[in-house]
Amino acid sequence: MLGAAAFLALGLLAPQSQAAPAGATAPGAGNPRGASAPRAIPVPKSPDAIGANPRFRLSSQDGTEETGPRPAPAAGTAKASRLAATAACPDLSGVINSTGAALVQQLKALPQITCTYPLFNLTGENARKAFREEQMVTVANALRDSFATYAGDNSTATGQLVLFLRAGYYVQDNNAATVGDYGTPLATAARGALDAYFASPRSKDVTDANGEILNEVVTLIDSTHEAGRYAGVVKWMLGSYNGTWPGQMNLAMQHVEWVVDNAFKAKNDARGWRAALKADPAIVDTWAGFITRNEAQLNRLDVVSNVGRYLGNVLDVPELKDRVRPLLKDLINRYPNVGPTAPITMNLGWATRQYDRGNCAAYAICDLGQRVLPAVLPIQHTCTPGLKIRAQDMSPGQLASTCTSLVGQDAYFHRIIGDKGAIPGDVNTDLEVVVFDDYTQYALYAWALYNIDIDNGGMYEEGNPAVPGNQARFIAHEASWLRPDFQIWNLNHEYTHYLDGRFNMHGDFDAGMTTPTIWWVEGIAENISFGYRNERNADAIAEAARKTYRLSDLFDTVYGQEEDPEVNSNRVYRWGFLAVRYMLQKHPADIETVLGKYRTGDWAGARTFLKQTIGTRYDADFETWLTTTCATDDCGPLPDATPPATTIPLCTIADTRQFDQNCRRDGLAATTGNYSYHFVYLPAGVKQLKLTSGGGTGNADLYYGGGSWATPGSFLAKSTGAGNTETLTIDNPPSGWVYFTLAAAQDFSGVTLSTQSK
After folding, report:
1. 539 Cβ partners below 8 Å, 6+ apart?
2. 3-state secondary structure of 720
3. E strand residue ranges, 445-515
4. At which of 637, 672, 700 does a domain end?
5. Which residue, of 181, 364, 428, 658, has the greatest Cβ tally within 10 A?
6. Helices 342-355 and 321-334 meet at what angle, rounded to 10?
7. Contact predicate 118/71, CB 8 Å
8. Domain for residue 358, yes or no?
9. Are residues 528 and 503 in the same domain?
10. Roughly what angle, to the nearest 10 degrees, separates helices 518-532 and 396-417?
11. Residue 49 maps to which CATH number?
12. Same domain, 477 and 602
């Protein structure tokens, strides 16, 4: 398995997602999935999926932002010092404060290209002085004149001029209000400089000396948004590249990835790339030849895979579909879909799904998922008859701990929500948890195996719970950035979606989106996940201090509601957590009313209750709660909805360890590290056994062992929250004697334990 240090680079080789973002909304509902993934809930993206930009990335380069020019140092730049300034580099105040010919002279006097790096960090008045348009035009024109006599190296300091322009575009892209707008004068001057370079015969020298300039000029093509104008340059590089290119030339080839990636993404073909492809379709053939000619290099992180996989995006140019289809069919089936060649074959396959959906036969990949499934997810493990794991790479201990976590969470969920049984007609008794080794593997294969979008951190697919045999499935990946600790990203959050859908939300996911229910759907998932793991939701608590939303506004939350993806994530997850936490603490009867309507599919009735009956009358108290309870008590504890039922009769059997099917025992006690052992006889036909403890003092945890004695080291289910209030619901328990135990995490006394069966 790849370590966390290697994860970022490999993860960026996964298929891109240029489809509608996960937050795209359906009318009045907030449907997050698109037509390809029905009845599915997207998982919050992992840190590696997000990087510095909330959009899903497809780049093997560093994690810099993807819509604007890249900052220096670019990945793989010469091994000169990467520090902001070194002893060999002078202070740049002369560059910042000079104009005209003096500015050009200051730049050319810099002893090496890397001395320009601090320019990428300029802000405020220094950024304006250095990079206002007239300054950029001056340098671009000087670069044009220098390239007229280009000698194939940096002997005339042309590299310093190129880096100045790159820095200017980058800083202006991130600080336009400060630097000012760029218009036609700069566009004309920059084209002149680029034209002059590529007109020089030395621009095609396959040497490190030329490559040092070429790799920055290729990046400048991206910075200037001129991909279409220089499509011929890309064609030449694709047609000429081979494994003998030296390091700096190889780096220039890597930077072609940025040019074509951003060119395809440009709205309305703003960079002219698609028009250039249509004008010279032979570029497509050259691109395919670039891959096959250099196939010996295909090894996950190679430049051929990085640049080659964008050939699939040509399918998004309707006029070229027929031309590129046979090329993609050949490439996808020419190389293995697993192992070192997977990034090229699976990315190209993903493009056929994205841009030629429903036409898998044209590429002979309709069975692609079936073909790769045994190799990609070889591990199959059963936790309980209704809970199974399919994994790529999990140890026996990791499988066992995951099962334990999920089984215990089931009981915790019902402690908080109550247990009124499954929604009538819901037959989603089985859940499959699919675990990829990391985000890379998830993004490479999940689309093919499960027909889902992969611009997310995973996906819960409820399916249609009314259809017998329907398979509910949570498709996940390990949180590789946390290694050596083992964690499945959002495991407990997503398992809550399964439980919530089965016990609270009538029908399938689409039905639940008829009206805005996301405040509850995501809010309860966050509350159960953090509460069950006994973790503090620091992000939500920090949001509470900002008092961004009124409670009445949060009842309107849908996916994709806020334009900024990060703001939207805050509203959906952090503020959903806060809204549900407040309502569970302060207005549990109202929650029960809303859930009563959700359980029957009365979406309109629930909406009316939230927006009219409750309306704005809790808004002021909610704001007070945010600033008091959240600030002083981490938003307070989750209330327990299922304390022991004192109406259950006392057990009458003389042996105080033994229970009837429906009775309670009071006053149970044990000292730290010891146990209170119990058992009950169940006749054949019992569908459910519920064990509930509470009351008294100390901390007693509840364990269930089935046909064997239960201890913290040997059990089938457990409930181990703080205090003595614990609940376990065992579906379809075995007939005969079954065993359960109160274990003293701390001395406990005066505890009530009850059994209920049906």
Report:
1. 570, 574
2. coil
3. 459-461, 472-477
4. 637
5. 428
6. 150
7. no
8. no
9. no
10. 120
11. 3.40.30.160
12. no
User: Rounded distance, CA 466 to CA 424, Å?
Assistant: 9
Retrieve residue 344's tokens.
């090229």
Assigned domain for 664 exists: yes
* Residues forming beta bridges with residue 712, ordered by sequence position: none
Task: Looking at the structure, tell me whether residues 463 and 480 fall in a common domain.
Answer: yes
AA letter at 628: T
Residue span of the structural domain in which 704 resides: 658-757
* Beta-carbon contacts of residue 526 (< 8 Å; ≥ 6 apart): 493, 537, 540, 573, 574, 576, 577, 580
Angle formed at CA 277 by CA 276 and CA 282, multiple of 5 degrees:
120
Q: Which two tokens stand for residue 397?
A: 């201990």
Query: What is the H or E stretch that residue 257 is in?
Result: helix 247-265
CA distance 53 to 174: 13
* 465 and 397 in a common domain: yes
Q: Is residue 487 part of a domain?
A: yes
Query: What's the rounded Cα separation, in Å, for the pair 691 and 680?
Result: 11
pLDDT for position 645 = 54
Distance separating alpha carbons of residues 351 and 305, to the nearest angstrom: 14
Quick one: CA dihedral 610, 616, 622, 627, positive or negative? positive
Across-strand partners of 736? 682
Using an 8 Å Cβ cutoff, are 61 and 51 in contact? no
Final residue in a domain of this structure, among 252, 283, 314: 283
Q: What is the DSSP-derived secondary structure letter of residue 225?
A: T
Instruction: Please count the residues of the chain.
Output: 758
Is 84 in the same domain as 219? yes
Q: Is the dihedral of CA 199, 204, 210, 213 positive or negative?
A: positive
Which of 401, 414, 338, 339 shows the shortest CA–CA distance to 373? Answer: 338
For 654-699, give the DSSP string: SSTTEE-SSEEEEEEEE-TT-EEEEEEEE-TT--EEEEEEE-SEEE
| Residue 732 to residues 383, 671, 718, Cα–Cα distance (Å) | 14, 32, 16
pTM of the entire structure? 0.74
Residue with tokens 């405040």: 519
49-59 pLDDT per residue, tens: 543 222 222 22
Whether the CA torsion 718, 41, 348, 229 is positive or negative: it is negative
Among residues of the chain, what percentage have pLDDT more than 70? 87
**Claim to verify: residue 623 and residue 674 sit in the same structural domain:** no
Closest to 549 (Cα-Cα) out of 618, 628, 633, 637: 618
Please count the structural domains in the chain: 4
584 in Cβ contact with 629 (< 8 Å)? no
Q: Are residues 213 and 83 in the same domain?
A: yes
List Cα–Cα distances, 105 to 64, 100, 143, 158, in angstroms. 30, 9, 12, 11
Structure tokens at 670: 């044990």
Q: Is residue 644 part of a domain?
A: no
Q: What is the DSSP string of 359-414?
A: -GGGGT-TTHHHHHHHHH--EEEEEETTEEEEESS--HHHHHHHHHHHHHHHHHHH
Identify the burial level of 279 via C-beta atoms within 10 angstroms of its C-beta, where 0-12 means exposed, 13-18 middle and 19 or more buried. Answer: exposed
Same domain, 206 and 261: yes
Q: Which two tokens mark 76?
A: 């793989």
> Can you give the CATH number for the domain in which 730 is found?
2.60.120.380
Mean pLDDT of 213-232: 97
Q: What is the pLDDT of residue 43?
A: 55
301-325 pLDDT, tens digit per residue, is: 899 999 999 999 999 999 999 999 9
Q: How many CA atoms lie within 13 A of 592 on its CB side?
A: 10
Over residues 320-342, the mean pLDDT reads 96
Q: What is the pLDDT of residue 36?
A: 31
Measure CA 742 to chain center. 39
Strand order in the sheet with 459-461: 40-42, 459-461, 472-477, 431-436, 387-391, 379-384
Query: Where does residue 302 rank: exposed (0-12), middle (13-18), buried (19+ CB within 10 A)?
Result: buried
pLDDT at 649: 87
